[in-house]
């Protein structure tokens, strides 16, 4: 795939995220590993719904800037690529419902996965990563214990992150996260959360292993 084709797909993913209310103003960032030492990443300070291919930046794995003005949260992206060798794309967005779970329930360590078969089958589990100040190395450091196992995560009081072996998988992870968070919120407000029976949860987890590592 050519660099320009990847750039166009990143722009499209940003537009899709904005259309689904998972990005506002200059929020969020998307990156793609072109090679072992060339990473495309969206620019800092621009509304991602309106970025152009010429706005894209490029950095190296040791955080050298090759082109453009890269996202201030690139250290987090670089840590994903270091810890997850299969990662080709990282999507960081601000899905409202997913973030709200971490605000309303600060002691929650993961989104309640045993309520929904789709969560178990599609991602296994969705942890809530402890808060770190945006733009700091701590954002990347806090991810280390979840990588490479988890491909979809909530970043407490900040946003969410999804990585994949291609752009579609990373985008689908973000979409899956917010959709699941909305269902769980609705159930919570309608009367409370209930879990599947333990034997069914075990069967679904076994099926997840058979389906493989990718986000579905």
What does it look like?
The chain is α+β, with helices and mostly antiparallel strands. The protein has a single domain (3-211), classed as L-fuculose-1-phosphate Aldolase (3-Layer(aba) Sandwich). It has seven helices and eight strands; from the N terminus they run H-E-E-E-E-H-E-H-H-E-H-E-E-H-H. It is globular and about 50 Å long. The two termini are 22 Å apart.
Q: How would a textbook summarize the main sheet?
A: 8 strands, mixed
Provide the low-confidence segments as ranges: none
Structural class: alpha+beta
Shape: globular
Our count of helices gives 7
Numbering strands along the chain, what is their spatial order in the largest sheet? 4-3-2-1-5-8-7-6
Strand percentage, roughly? 15-25%
- The helix content is 40-55%
Label the CATH architecture.
3-Layer(aba) Sandwich
The CATH topology assignment is L-fuculose-1-phosphate Aldolase
Q: Distance between termini?
A: 22 Å
What would you say about this model in short?
The protein is an alpha+beta fold and 216 residues long. It has helices at residues 3-19, 74-83, 96-104, 117-123, 137-143, 167-190, 198-211; strands spanning 29-35, 38-41, 57-59, 65-67, 89-93, 128-129, 152-155, 159-164.
Walk me through the topology.
Layout: H1 3-19, E1 29-35, E2 38-41, E3 57-59, E4 65-67, H2 74-83, E5 89-93, H3 96-104, H4 117-123, E6 128-129, H5 137-143, E7 152-155, E8 159-164, H6 167-190, H7 198-211
Parallel strand pairs: 6-7
Antiparallel strand pairs: 1-2, 1-5, 2-3, 3-4, 5-8, 7-8
Helix pairs in contact: 1-6, 2-5, 3-6, 4-6, 4-7
């Amino acid at each position: 795939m050519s660099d320009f084709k990847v750039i166009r797909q990143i722009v499209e993913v940003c537009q899709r995220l904005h259309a689904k209310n998972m990005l506002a103003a200059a929020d969020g960032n998307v990156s793609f590993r072109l090679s072992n030492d060339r990473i495309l990443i969206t620019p800092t300070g621009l509304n991602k719904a309106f970025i152009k291919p010429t706005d894209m930046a490029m950095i190296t794995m040791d955080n050298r800037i090759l082109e453009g003005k890269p996202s201030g949260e690139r250290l987090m992206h670089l840590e994903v690529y270091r810890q997850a060798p299969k990662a080709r794309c990282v999507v960081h967005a601000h899905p409202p419902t997913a973030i709200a779970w971490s605000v309303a329930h600060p002691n929650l360590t993961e989104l309640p996965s045993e309520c929904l078969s789709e969560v178990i089958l599609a991602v296994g589990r969705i942890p809530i990563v402890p808060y770190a100040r945006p733009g700091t190395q701590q954002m990347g450091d806090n991810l280390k214990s979840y990588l490479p196992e988890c491909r979809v995560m909530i970043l407490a009081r900040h946003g969410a992150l999804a990585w994949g072996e291609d752009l579609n998988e990373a985008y689908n992870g973000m979409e899956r996260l917010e959709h699941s968070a909305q269902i769980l919120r609705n159930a919570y407000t309608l009367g409370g959360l209930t879990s599947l029976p333990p034997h069914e949860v075990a069967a679904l987890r076994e099926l997840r292993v058979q389906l493989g590592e990718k986000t579905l």
